[in-house]
Amino acid sequence: MNPDRVAAALAEVRQRIDSVLRPWSHPVQIVAVTKGFGPEAITAASAAGATAIGENYAQELLSKRDAAQAANVEVQFIGGLQRNKVRQLVGLVDVWSSLDRRSVIDEVAKRAPGAQVQIQVNATGEAHKSGAAVDEVHALVRHAQDLGLGVVGLMAVGPTEGGPGAARPAFARTRSLVDELALERCSIGMSADLEVAVEEGATEVRIGTGLFGQRPTR
Ligand SMILES: *Cc1c(COP(=O)(O)O)cnc(C)c1O
Description:
Elements: H1 3-20, E1 29-33, H2 39-48, E2 52-55, H3 58-63, H4 65-70, E3 74-77, H5 86-89, E4 95-99, H6 102-111, E5 116-121, H7 137-146, E6 150-156, H8 168-180, E7 185-187, H9 194-199, E8 204-207, H10 209-212
Parallel strand pairs: 1-2, 1-8, 2-3, 3-4, 4-5, 5-6, 6-7
Helix pairs in contact: 1-2
The structure holds pyridoxal-5'-phosphate (PLP).
C-alpha cells in the first residue's frame, strides 16, 4: 500500500465526481472501501484526506480496530450484518449503513442506542441482492426512528450486470425514496458507476478498487 498512490487515486476520484457535479448537486463524500486490504489502507485513506471508510466484514474490521480508531474518519459498516455481530462492533462503527431488516435494526437500537444508521435498499429488485424491498423502506425507516435511531440516509448498490448506465433507474429510485423520507444521505455509486450516481443525486459514493486497486482474493 503506497500512501502517495492512494492520495493520487483519491484526487482522481474527486475529479471524476467534480466532472459531473452541477451547481445544484449535493456535496459528495467519498467513502473509502477498505475491505480486503490491511489496516494500512485505512491509514493511507485518512492521510490522503478521506473522511469516511467502509468495511464489509465484522471480523475483518475488528482486526483493524486500532487503525480505524486512530484514523480521523467516520467508520461505516456496509456489508451483510448478522445480529450476533452487532455487539462486538459497538464503539467502532459510526454509521451502520447496511440495515435491511427489523431484527438487525432492533439489535442495533438495543446495543447502540441513538446510533446513526442507513437503510439498505434493494433498488434493482434482483433476487439475490441484499437490501430491503423498495415497498418496505418507509416502514423500516419509521421503525428505526421509533426505536430512537438516527436514520441519516439510504444505501443502494447498482445492478450486477449491464454496465454503469444500467444503474441509473435504481439510483433514481433510491434518490426519490431519500427525498420522500426527507433524509440527508443518499449512498449510491461505486468505482464503476460513480458518475451516474452523482448525476442522480448521490451524497456519498463508496469507492474501493478506484482507490486501492484490485482487492486481493479472500
Ligand atoms: C465492495 C463494495 C464497494 C466498493 O466497490 P468497488 O467496486 O471496489 O468500488 C462499495 N459498496 C459496497 C456495498 C461494497 O460491498
